[in-house]
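Title: Prediction job returns without error message
Component: structure pipeline
Severity: low
Priority: P3
Assignee: unassigned

Description:
Job completed but the reporter wants confirmation the result is attached to the right record. Sequence as submitted:
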Amino acid sequence: MRLDGDEMAADADDSDAGDYSETFMSRREARQTPQAERSLCGGPGPGVYGAVSERRAIEPDAWGADLEWYRETRLSPAVQVGELLFVAGCTGAAAAVDGPRAQMRRAYEEIGQVLDAAGASWDDVVSMTTYHVHFRRDIDAMTEIHREFVTKEPFPAWTAVGVTALYEPEAIVEISVHALVPRSQLGE
C-alpha cells in the first residue's frame, strides 16, 4: 500500500491495498464526510475515532480514609473512560511487616479492589506493569503470586521493571494495570 499526499491508494487490483481500501477512507473523503458518518468506533461524537466518553474516577469503598490522600494530591486510584480502565500503581506496602510475599499479594488484592469497584476483575486486565526494588530476588515469588490472581486466557501483557526505589519507602513492588470493563457493567 502506498500513501500519496492526501489520498490512500485504493486500486481494487492492487493486492497490497487489500481490505484497507474498503475499511478506511482517504483524508480528503474524511474531511468531506459528516463526523457522524465517519466514526470508526460506531458512534457519533467529536472525538477523532468516535464518541468521547466521560471520564470518571474509581474509588474503592474499602479504602476508606486512604482515599483522602488521593483527593488531596489530586490523583485517582483509577480512571475509567468508556470501557477502558486505567488503574494507578498499588504497592501493598501496608503488609510490608509480614514480608515480601505478603506485600506482593496485598498489591494484587488492592488492584483487585479497584477492579471490583469498576465492575471488572483480574480476568478483564489486558496489560500490567510491575516495578520491583529487588527484581532478581523477588521475581519468582511474584510470578507464583501472579498465577493465583491471573487465571483466565488471554493473559495480560506484562512488563516488569527493576527500580531503585518506590514512593513508599517500605514498598518493594508496585503494580499498575489497564483493563476492559465488561459491557454489562457500563450502564449504557
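Comment from assignee: result matches the submitted record. Residues 1-28, 35-45 have pLDDT under 50 and may be disordered.
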